[in-house]
Fold:
Amino acid sequence: MEPIKVSLESLNLTTLLPMLIAVAGGLTILIIDLIKENLHKSLYVMLSILFLLLDLGALIGLDINTRGFFDVMLIDGIAVISQIIIIVASMLFIPLALTSKRFHEFSLPEFFALFLFMVAGFQFMVASDNLILIFVGLETASLSLYPLIAFHNRDKSFEAAIKYFTMGAVAAGFFAFGSALLYGLTGSVEIYKIAEVLTERGFEPIIVVLTAVAFMIAALGFKLSMVPFHTWTPDVYEGASSALAGYMSVVPKLAGFVVAMRMFEFLIHSGIVWVRDILYLAVVITMTFANIVALVQHDVKRMLAYSSISHAGFVMAAIMIGTTQSNSGLFLYWILFLFTNLGAFTMLWISRHKSNLWHDRFDHPYEKFSGLVQIMPIAATSMAVFMLSLAGIPPFSLFWGKLYIMGAAVNSGYIMLALIMAINSAISVYYYLKLIVYMFMKDPISDKQTIYFKNSSLSLRTIVGISVVFTIFSSFFISPLLSYITEIVRLSGF
Structure:
């Protein structure tokens, strides 16, 4: 039998280069630790940022709309822009390790190595339309993320990691089963081939297609914390460090959105009414339920967890609408959300302390922030800016994102959906303003004023500063950003 010859040119290995750089970074950190132990965490922070910068450079140098590595890698515009967001978010997160107080997990080089492996996993997820590679990326990222949560080394962190692991394992099972059904139906694991074969057959047998799609919606619903698959989210965010919770609210969900976009949009455009109806229902329930539950939370971190579920529902509406405008709105919204939400969670990270705990049950009750404006006026103002932006108050960043997605809904004839979005935004104003009222309208209830300063190192203040500037002045660069995103999305054929 003649051996199969594969030329290196046809493999196009440069498509793998960004992920390989992230993996090499993780391995480098582990090797350095083998050679010399107990080095200061600032070295690992610098190395992580350096490898992420190299990763970004390799990514920007790629040709758009190319395939590589036996055609399983797909570098289209969506793959590039989502990887850029993932890397930028990761570079904003890593300096949060440089807190003033010593937190156990950041002294471990494994933390930074696993973090870089996780970034590579998310990059694989968004840079492929091959269900096997998406699954490998999903599991690489998830298996790295579970120990990162547990490293925080509190009872709640172990509980959070186990909950996330259990839910993640169930979601992985759903994904594998959905993929197996699609493969059985079409003889392919490439999403574009699956789309071609199903369209030719008129989506028959419809019951098997429906089952496969239901499994896929369930699997991605876990990752995107869509109701009713959201139950892990508040507990896991509460158990993880505030910085990691902020990161988890942005990056894993973006990877999930990209996979959902590739997976469901061909079904939506084929005129299959029930897929659109299921997603419509999921979007409305997720937004509304999360907002109502956020109203009764006593802890700011749990409130932000439910808030991020609601935002995920809001953005999922863009995938359900399925036009170029709505898909551009998805990336615009998530870029704006990245800075605002990471900034808000960083403020919680600054006020986190190991020994001065305010409450038996919660780390960040609303009372903790009472009269913050009298103790740390800049911190109170920064937090207020993030809350107003999350609420969608003009001229702060997320107002433009909400406006654009609601505009896309109206232009596609989803007037009722746009109305539900507007009502949900109005409901969310209450719980965001509640925190502002505590910070600005109430007196401090404790003489332990120094608690607010415990973690406030220069690197943390810098990240908050960048987030505040981006949130306040986003209106100046919305237009060029949007035109770039729209062009990229159009190039990808979405």
DSSP finds 21 helices and two strands in the chain. The longest helix spans residues 155-186.
